[in-house]
Amino acid sequence: MFHKIILVGNLGKDPEMRYTPGGQPVTSFSVASNRKYTDSGGQQVEETIWFRISVWGKQAEVCKQYLSKGRQVLVEGRLVCDRQTGGPRTYKRQNGEMGTSFEINAETVRFLGQRGEGGPAEGGEASPAAAPGTEEEIPF
Fold this sequence. Notes:
Blueprint: E1 5-11, E2 16-19, E3 25-38, E4 44-56, H1 58-66, E5 72-80, E6 89-92, E7 98-112
Parallel strand pairs: 4-7
Antiparallel strand pairs: 1-3, 1-5, 2-3, 3-4, 5-7, 6-7
């Protein structure tokens, strides 16, 4: 079996990096993806879905270094179900309403736009070659 999810959205907060007991870096961040549509009554509706993203290895280090809250990204990866429910994670918002978020193990993270401070140029990809100042960028 095979599945892949591709989404574009904005980071809800700065990424957080940690290391597994084996020394593998993993960076986590949340991405909000918005959808606007007109309902059957002619009203404009805006829907936001939150995704929790986990990025591993060198790509995790690059994401931690260059991503920040508000930055737009394209994420390709696989959906991870909640082990207890078999579906998305549910939680209670501060206003008392229920919400859901989906967990994604990212295979690729591409930096889009220039929202916020710093970061590589538009369309950069979170890989060692995409990080400014790497040896691949030296012209000699």
